[in-house]
Every structure is written in C-alpha cells, then in structure tokens.
Amino acid sequence: MTARNVLGTELLPCSYDPLTGFYRDGCCATDAQDHGTHVVCARMTREFLDFSLAQGNDLITPRPEHRFAGLKPDDRWCLCVLRWREALTEGVVPPVYLKSTHSKALERVSLDQLQAHAAD
Q1: How crowded is residue 51: how many other Cβ atoms within 10 Å of its Cβ?
Q2: Are 110 and 51 in contact (CB under 8 A)?
Q3: Terminus of the chain with fewer CB atoms < 10 Å: N or C?
Q4: Are 7 and 16 in contact (CB under 8 A)?
Q5: What is the maximum span of the chain, computed from C-alpha positions, in angstroms?
Q6: Measured between alpha carbons, how far is 69 from 93 in angstroms, rounded to an integer?
Q7: pLDDT in tens, 10-48
C-alpha cells in the first residue's frame, strides 16, 4: 500500500540531501519500528535547531560514524511528531511540507496546526 501524506495523497520525498527519514530513504515513512514517529517533513530553522539541542537532541553536530553531516537552516528533515508539537508550544516550530508529511502525524497534531505552518 502506498504511504499517504496529511492531505490524503501519495507521500512525496522530503530530502535526499541530506538523506532523511527513519529508513534514510528520503521519505518520512514510518512503521512499528519507528518508535520516534519521524513523520513531519520540516525546513530547519536556527531557532528550531537550537531548541532541539536544548532538549538533548543535537541535530547540528556532524556524526560521521552514523553518516550524518549535521543539519543547518533550510535543510529539510523528517522530525518526530512529538518534537514538532513541542516546538509549536514553545513558539519555535519549523515550517512543514504537507505533501511530504506522513498521515500518521495527524494522530498527534491537527491538519489545521500543520497547515498554519505550511511551507508548501
């Protein structure tokens, strides 16, 4: 079955450079193994990256041993839906790409919330 985005259409890739997704396939696809639910395709901002770092999730520092170059503002990345929701509450939410955000995100945030911060 084809994965669906929050708009009900086919899930589009989020980013190949940097290569994102729980399965590092460029898409915010998910399944039961993805305990973090990395389903929100977002454009990184300095404010969000700093917020994530302060929460203990360093997305900035390169980790070559994990083939991770580190993120910078304007990179697209599949975020955990709960981290995106936290950032929303804290006023540092990054813009989202609705066509690349998995429908599973709607279990934790509303379409209205996502659309209010849409980049596409």
Answers
A1: 19
A2: no
A3: N
A4: no
A5: 38
A6: 22
A7: 999 999 999 999 999 999 999 999 999 999 999 999 999
Exposure string for 65-91, b = 16+ CB within 10 A, e = fewer: eeeeeebeeebbbbbbbebbbebbeee
Structural fold of domain 1-120 = Phenylalanyl-tRNA Synthetase; Chain B, domain 1 (3.30.56)
pLDDT at 1 over 80: no
What 8-state DSSP symbol labels residue 112? H
**CA distance linking residue 23 with residue 93, whole number of Å:** 24
Number of CB atoms found within 10 A of residue 62's CB: 11
What is the C-alpha to C-alpha distance for residues 71 and 32, in angstroms, rounded to an integer? 26
Percent of the chain with pLDDT over 90: 92
Residue by residue, DSSP assigns 10-47 as BPPP--BTTB-TTTTSSS----TT-TT-EEEEEE--HH
pLDDT, one tens digit per residue, over 66-75 is 878 899 999 9
The residue type of 102 is H
